[in-house]
Amino acid sequence: MLSYAIAGSQYSMYKKPIEPKAPSRLASAQQRTDMSEYQELRSQLISMLEELDERLDKITDDVRHTDKPLEQDFSEQAVEAENDQVLDALGNVTRDELEKIRLAIARIDDGSYGICTTCGDDIKKERLAVLPYANLCIRCAERSEHKSH
Ligand SMILES: [Zn+2]
Prior knowledge:
Elements: H1 2-14, H2 25-37, H3 39-64, H4 74-110, H5 125-130, H6 138-148
Helix pairs in contact: 3-4
Bound molecules: zinc ion.
Zinc ion binds at residues 116, 118-119, 121, 136-137, 139-140.
């Protein structure tokens, strides 16, 4: 056990450090490393996308009453109309979310993921962990929220 450990450390002493291939690698390699870090996230986003797509399909089916009879009395129709409004709103939220996820995947692909689209600052990792499709840093998000209220 001990001799193995010593042998191992001796080996690592003789091991050559990996040398940079070119001086210009810093910026581009950095970017590539960052994006490969997002590959797992990318597949998560894709499964979110598929899930939402399915959900949206169901919502759309519900709004169209594809599996319901048309004859109803007035109160049933009123409830139905109310449900439609809820489903409509839900559909809009889902569509909105779908669009954001699609954009996030596109940003991973073009290497701009994690960068605020308004000010160009890095979006904090903690924020991306909570909101993986965030395209604004917390400051810009707060600012745009204030604007719209
Ligand atoms: Zn920003």
